[in-house]
Fold each of these.
Amino acid sequence: MAYSDNTLHRAEAILGYGIGSATAGVRTYRVVDGIIYTDLFTDKPVIDGYTGTLTTRFNGSQRTPYFNEIVLNDKCQPEVSITAAWGNDTFTTEVDDLLKWLEDNPFADIADNSSVQSKKIEDSSTTFKDSDEAGSSFYDAVRGVWSFYIRNPIIISVTPEQRHDYGYF
């Protein structure tokens, strides 16, 4: 099944690396303590300017036909360009249940907005009345709501037997 770009982006946000379909190309990554954490790739990658040996892994395992880590055995630059076949169709079928669930549950796109700190809505403003207008508007509002009770007060009578009950009203 072909999945929408939105579904693939949400899956990549959950997994922490790009999955995509197999596409050859060059991408740039940082080297962290001799390891390059990459998007999913297949085959042997080529690192520009690196002549040492390397080991490819998928989350620490070497037993998969796809990889997302490159362990360098020699020193190299802190940022490198890597040529590889990015993505893997086998992996996409392995995470098919996740992709189907994301496709069937569009409400689960919270991950798409997880980095949004705030939104600004343009062309919206609030203006306030001056104090005279505000006072008269408040008086009109109170009079409109409470006018029945102001014109027809509730009279509560207290009989001698209930003279101490007035505190309850």
Amino acid sequence: MLSAGLLISAAWVGMAVLAWSTIRRYADLAGSFASASFKHLPNPFAETVCNRARRRMHLLVLLMIAVFMVMYLGLAVIRLAAS
């Protein structure tokens, strides 16, 4: 059970990192696109606005995965202590 939980958590970390780099690439592409019709509107994908939000969300995702890993390890310790 412990190894399965840790394996799933490791897969989550891998997927989160890969997905985040893909999202970052698409946001950078969208941020570089500027049409003549929309120059007067603020760009929501601009570096100053988007970087802080992306970093916070990425840290929250990794924190959630870390909480699950600690839960798996805690369950393993409790199970070993009980036997």
